[in-house]
Amino acid sequence: MSFVATKKLTLFDYINYSLLSVISLACIFPFIYVFSVSFTDPEVYVPLQFYLLPEKWSLSAYKYILSTNSFINALKSTVFVTGIGTVLSVIISFTFAYVLTKKVVPGRRFMLSAVIFTLVFNAGILPNYLLIKELGLLNSYWSLILSGLTNAWSLIVIKSFLESLPPELEDAAHIDGCSDIGVFWRIVIPLSMPAIAAFTLFFAVSYWNTYFNALIYLTDAKKWTLQVLVKSLVIDSDSNGVGAAGGGGDDRVIPQETIRMASIVLAIVPILIVYPFLQKHFAKGVMLGSVKG
C-alpha cells in the first residue's frame, strides 16, 4: 500500500493563491461584461450598468452587424490576409532559415548578421511607410502581407530547430542522388512538421490581429480588416443608436454599446475557439531548438 505525500500549504501559499485568483477574476470580468452586453436585448439595456448575465437575451446586435456590408468586407479582408499571409510566411521563414543553417552558402554570415541586426534595431514607422509607398503597395492587401512575412525571432528559432536535425539523414539522401531542393522537401520538411504547425499558428494569430499596419497602409474603408473596423466602432462612433434590427418588422433602435461589444466578440471568437485546442503547439514552438544533445 503506497502513500502519496502531500505538501502542507503555508500562509504564503494561501496568500499567493488568493492574489492570483483575484488577478484572474480581474482579467475575466471584462470578457464577461463584453459578452453579456452583446447579447442584451435593446429594450432592457441600461448604459453604464454591469451585466454578469443578460437580463433578456437577444441576437439583435449580431443580426445587425452581420447584415452590414462593412463587417462582411472586413471579414473577407481578414480571412484573405490571414490565409495568404500565413502560407507565405511559413514558406519564406523555413526556406530562409534552412539556408542560414548551411555554412557553404556564400554570404551566409552577412545574411545572419543582417537578421540579428533587425532583432536589435528597427527602422521605424516613417521609413517603413515610405518603403511601402515607393513599392506602390499603399491601399493594398499586399502591404499587410509582405511587410510581415517573417521576423528575426522566428528565423533564429527555426534555424536552431533545423540545426538540431540529424545531418546524417541529409548526407544519406545526397548519396542516394537527391538534390538540395529534394532533401529540403522530402527530408527536412517532414521532420519539421511540429515546428511548421507551431509557427503556422503564430503567423495566423499575428495576421488575424493585424491592426496598426492596416490602419496606416489601407486608405479605403472597404479594405479594412476586422481589427480596424472594431476600433472604428468602439472609439470613433458616437453613443447613439445606429439603426434598426433587421428582419421581422423589428424597428427597435440598437444601442451603440451593444453593437460595439458584439463586434468585439465576433472579432475574437475565432481565435478563442481555436487557441485552447492548439495551445500545446504554441508551447512547443517556444521550446523549439532550445534543447540539444
Write the layout of secondary structure elements.
Elements: H1 11-38, H2 60-66, H3 69-100, H4 108-120, H5 125-134, H6 141-146, H7 152-163, H8 167-175, H9 180-191, H10 193-208, H11 212-217, H12 226-236, H13 256-287
Helix pairs in contact: 1-13, 2-13, 3-7, 3-10, 3-12, 4-7, 8-9, 10-13, 12-13
Describe the structure.
There is one protein chain. The protein has helices spanning 11-38, 60-66, 69-100, 108-120, 125-134, 141-146, 152-163, 167-175, 180-191, 193-208, 212-217, 226-236, 256-287. With 293 residues, the chain is mostly helical. It has 13 helices and no strands.
Main beta sheet: strand number and arrangement? none
Proportion in helices = 55-70%
Strand content: under 5%
Number of separate helices:
13
Strand elements, count: 0
> Which series of helices and strands comes N to C?
HHHHHHHHHHHHH
Average pLDDT figure: 82
Report the radius of gyration as a whole number of Å: 25 Å
Cα(first) to Cα(last) distance is 39 Å
Low-confidence stretches: 238-249
| Structural class assignment | mainly alpha
Question: So what's the overall shape?
Answer: globular
What's this, in brief?
By secondary structure, the protein is an all-alpha fold.
Keywords:
single chain, 293 residues, mainly alpha, 13 helices, 0% strand
